[in-house]
Amino acid sequence: MLNDQKTTRPRVLIVDNEDSIVELYRELILLWGYFPVIAKGIGNDLLEDARKKARDSRCQMALVDMRLVDNFDEEDMSGLDLIKDINPAKTIIVSGFGTLELAVKIVKNGGAVDFFEKSDDPDKLKSKLDALAGEICAVRSAASIEPPEILDLIARTLFDPAKQIPIEAHDQILDVLVRLFPRAKNLRLERTSATIVSSDFSTVPRPRSVVLLAHEDELQPVIVKIARVEKIRKEVGNFEEHIKGRLVGKHNTIFIEHVELWDIGGVRLSYVDTLAGTFSGFIVSQPIEQIRESLEKFFLRTWSDHYKRATDAANISLFELYCRVWDCDWVDRACQATMPNASDIMSPRFWKLAERQSPLNWLKTIVDSKGGEQDPSRVSETKIAVTHGDLHADNLLMDDTRYCWVVDFERTGKGHILQDFIELESDIINRIACARDVFPAFYHFCVTIAGARAIDDPLLTSPILDDEETRKLFEVILLIRGLAVQCTGIADFRQYLMGLYFNTIFRATITSQEQKQKKEIKELRAWMLASILCHRLAFWEEPWPPQEWTKFS
Q1: Do 322 and 200 lie in a common domain?
Q2: Positive or negative, the Cα torsion across 270, 264, 53, 5?
Q3: Which H or E run contains 131?
Q4: What is the reported pLDDT for 552?
Q5: Which pLDDT score, from 0 to 100, does residue 199 have?
Q6: Which of 108, 322, 480, 513 qualifies as a FRET site for 25, CA 20 to 30 Å off?
């Protein structure tokens, strides 16, 4: 019974150093339809237990006595100090020593949402709790949120479905939506083609996100993103530092509101005209002329100010530069990985050629160099600029005017100026081109894209260029590379290829980690691409492709 009440009633933490007061509030809280969570202990033990109980029960609200250590010490404000430690629970301070002046000060500067004098009528406390719960708790809100199956989708996406989802997780999802739309009477959620943004599509390991269109009453829809709270916190910080006021034109998202709860957070983004899908679908469905127009609008206009503010960097390790953006978890994972044997699945002849240069051993050589002069990723000169940091094609939302609206700023920050172009190309190769079933064609695709000497060089002739679909993907890649040179002034293909190699290693190992029981073709093909790129980089001055690679068609 109590467990049921814990999920159907708002959870209220009670923190007081007088047992009789605690028992009174507990009875009142239950009577009023709330679930009481009691902090126990004396002095600092009481404060510590309050922090733990608030976190363990994911409390939405709290009643906290102002003096928790010593009732007779006028300087004791330990209850006020506790407020920030139990956030995101919203705190009402209760005290028997309060004045109107103190109450105003506590609410204005102390972080509390309200104040209650212990000698006052308990019905006033009920009114304060009810008003607060109606604003922040979905079970007490008048808002109708639908459809319910999308809420289940969010929970399954953000939490491991193989494990028991915490009972408090579901109401956090609803509470986030209520707080993002505090005046909504009806909120209808709608899936987009990029609803689930998983690490499978991403170059960074992160909790998954859900992107939705939200229709509030009769208003125009906005974009809502729900994710683990660490991701939302980092994304909002990066947006404030690197994006807000720095993108050119009006075709860019703006954070209207954000919410951070115990495990889950959300952002409400500005309206994106008429959402037509993601750039992934746009590449497949639209002619090359329209793809060119969209890419030029994004790189030459929307994102252009970041390239103008780029700084020169000399004698720098690209490996270390990418680690600054991605952290080093991907390196540890890669160094512990094992190359799969895909000869039976991917044709023994082709796999034997592709795996000749081990991409993992080469990465370990780079790691062992510790960024020194023997680091093969060290370049004499490049540029550093603010990059998106995770520019796969599902992080570009398309409107009906063919403008790209970029979302997801968790990894936005200063990095290799070519990084966004490289990541977008990597996504096209590893996800869109890789989706086709014909392995020999994909092998030739990878050999061909690795063969340039400068970034904007034309691609080598290839037997697969007669295929219309493949030729279109090549044209998109050439567009991206041409824009890279135009925006950055860098034509050094070796450093471009090095970034592509890092991206591919990342994808190969993250897929392996997520698919321990099943070796998917996309993982195996990522390993093959990594091997081809590694061979090209390790033997840069030798003719390409190697003569023995041309024997098979």
Answers
A1: no
A2: positive
A3: helix 122-136
A4: 54
A5: 43
A6: 108
- Number of residues that make up the chain: 553
Give the strands of the sheet with 378-387, arranged side by side: 311-317, 378-387, 413-416
Look-up: residue for tokens 């040179």?
485
CATH of the domain at 254: 3.30.200
Domain range spanning residue 476?
Answer: 276-551
Do 254 and 354 reside in the same domain of the chain? no
Number of domains in the chain: 3
pLDDT tens figures, 201-253: 455 444 478 888 899 998 888 889 999 999 999 999 999 999 999 999 888 88
Q: In what order do the strands lie in the sheet with 275-278?
A: 275-278, 396-399, 404-406
**What's the pLDDT at 205?**
46
The gap from C-alpha 471 to its chain's centroid, in whole angstroms, comes to: 32
Statement to judge: residues 58 and 183 lie in one domain: no
Q: Do 249 and 266 reside in the same domain of the chain?
A: yes
pLDDT for residue 236: 94
Low-confidence ranges of the chain (pLDDT < 50): 1-3, 197-201, 204-207, 513-518, 553
Nearest residue to 125 (alpha-carbon basis) of 28, 237, 270: 28
Domain end: 140, 160, 181, which one? Answer: 140
What the block records as the tokens of 502 is 């890092």
- Residue 46 shares a structural domain with residue 133: yes
Report how far residue 79's alpha carbon sits from residue 76's, in angstroms, rounded to the nearest whole number: 8
Tokens 């993982």, residue located:
523
Residue 483 shares a structural domain with residue 392? yes
Nearest residue to 263 (alpha-carbon basis) of 165, 357, 343: 165
User: CATH number for the domain including 539?
Assistant: 3.90.1200
pLDDT at 174 (0 to 100): 93
Q: Are residues 264 and 289 in the same domain?
A: no
Buried b (16+ CB within 10 A) or exposed e, 128-153: bbeebbeebbbebbebebeeeebbeb
The predicted pLDDT at position 344 comes to 62
Structure confidence at residue 3 (pLDDT): 47
Q: Quick one: 354 and 456 in the same domain?
A: yes
Q: Specify whether the CB–CB gap between 216 and 187 falls below 8 A.
A: yes
pLDDT digits (tens, 9 = 90+) for 175-204: 999 999 999 999 999 887 555 544 444 554
